[in-house]
Amino acid sequence: MTRPDYQPLVDDKRIIEKLQERITLTNMELITEREHNEKIIKDIEDLKVANRRLREKKQENEEEMCIFSLYCNHPVTDELTVSLLKVHEDELLPIVLDKAYELMELAPHVPIERCRLAKYDIRDEVINQSFDLDKFGHLTIAQTVGAARYYSFGLFLEICKANETFKKYNDGGIVLMISVVDMSTGKAGPAKPMRGEKGWTVGELKQHIGELFNIDSSCMRLVMKDNDYGSGIIVRDVSDVGITFEEMLYSPNRL
After folding, report:
1. Domain 174-250, what fold?
2. The domain at 65-159 falls in which architecture?
3. What b-and-e string marks burial along 53-73, b requiring 16 or more CB atoms within 10 Å of the CB?
4. pLDDT: which is higher, 140 or 47
């Protein structure tokens, strides 16, 4: 006879198998969860590394940016407009011109072919050097003006009329303050800044002054005010059209 609580061995075996299955399934779930957690941890670490590299790249890129004050006589408002132009130091001058053109919103009004960038003296409000694409178009902005983050000078976006050509401005010019004297009163009018080229003759200088003030250069007498430490301010007649502008400025015998 068997005891009332007796169960066949086969039932015990099934129970053990089910327990083993549950243990195996639980272990698999634990392994899967651990692997999942490890993957999450790895993803977080990878994200930190990627963010750090992105910050470093962004900082490096910021250090390679050139920042200019960009000036332009806007054709719509006819006013001097200024904006901040940021370009990478390795960008070619034609690309910089495109960005300046877009920044000043000139597209509806003036074709880019009638625009040119130039080095601009912010203090004296004159152009120091023109950057014509036929001469500078193959250079980067850093090669054109030097690599720096901020500049003491600005860029001027020049616009010429449809039937005009740009004047060339060479580096190394001299800024002059020009006044016109009213011969009836002997009083000098307000001075205007004008950039002169050392290689100009005095005749060419008078011609440019005539264009600035809209007066006839043929009936113009040109005088220069000097500071003489012995006798104070003296005025010299420099109307001789045969000498150059540089000779006029630096010759000790100019009269």
Report:
1. Ubiquitin-like (UB roll) (3.10.20)
2. Roll (3.10)
3. eeeeeeeeeeeeebebbbbbe
4. 140
